[in-house]
Structure formats: structure tokens, C-alpha cells
Amino acid sequence: MLDVRPLDLSGVYEITPRRSTDGRGFFSETYSAPAFARMGIDLAFVQDNHSLSKAAGVLRGLHYQLPPLAQDKLVRVTRGAILDVAVDIRKTSPTFGKWLALEISAEQWNQILVPVGFAHGFVTLLPKTEVLYKVTQPYSHAHERSIRFDDPAIGIDWRTAPGAIVLSDKDRVAPLLADAQIFE
Q: Which of 13, 72, 91, 122 would give a disulfide with 136, using CB separation of 3.0 to 4.6 Å?
């Protein structure tokens, strides 16, 4: 069973799988294609990704892929916690450039579904945070794009002091939204 809650940007959902707990631990069905299809979410995931961030304040993003290899993402945390961010980068969308943030954690056992047409990123809130996410297209270096995490035109509140953020070189030099290749 899955609890699904639509978020403020169309197509973005918080999904919380149920857990059965007993003295041994727990069991949880974190993804079921038939259950998602019954909710009107009919996606074919083709790749699973897993990241470990050793420190709190590690920021990964804002990332996306262009068509024809644009990706829907189903993101969850198995250890620690993140602030997950989705930014609407569909040029013709009424919410173009708007963002939302959702705390996802192993404790809450929630997930976020980020659809095609959104840039995605997260910052770790705890050390040793592990993030797993499913995608609907394989990784493609030729289609991969990034947007600056601190673009003032977007104005994301990462809830982390700027000096405490740890970035990759790629994310540090990502273009602003105004200069990025995005979805038409």
C-alpha cells in the first residue's frame, strides 16, 4: 500500500510506502508498477542509482536530462535525511522557474516523484546519508544538463548556510536558468 500526496507543482508527488514492523525489523514494498498504475502513474523505470554523502551539507544538483532521454525520478532515502528540491523548467508551464522542497528521510520513509521537465537536486541534512532513486531513462552524458543551485532568479532556500555546502566541480560551474538549455 502506498500513500500518495500531490505537491504544489503539477506532477510532483510525495509517496509514502507502508511498513510492516515486528520484532525482527520491518518489511516495505517501496515500489509496485501495478500500484502506481492504479494511481494514474504509469512509468517504466530502467535504472536504479544509489549515492552516499559522507557529510551533512553535500548538495547534488540541480540536474536533469533533455529529451529524448529525459528522466522521471522516484527518490528515497535509506539512511539519513535530505532536503529534496524540484524546479519546473518547462518553458511553457505556468509554474516555470518555481520550486518546491520536501524533506525526505529514512525515518519518515517517504519518497518524492519528480517528473520529466523538472530539474532535481538535494542537500544532505545528516552525515552518512544514502539516497536511492529510480529513473525512466538511462544516464546519458550527451543529454545531461545542470542549473546553478544558487540561481537568484529561482531563489531556493536550501536551509543550509552557503559556507557549509559541499559541491562537485560540475555543480559549482553550472549555468543559470536563463542560460541553460531547457524543455520547450
A: 72
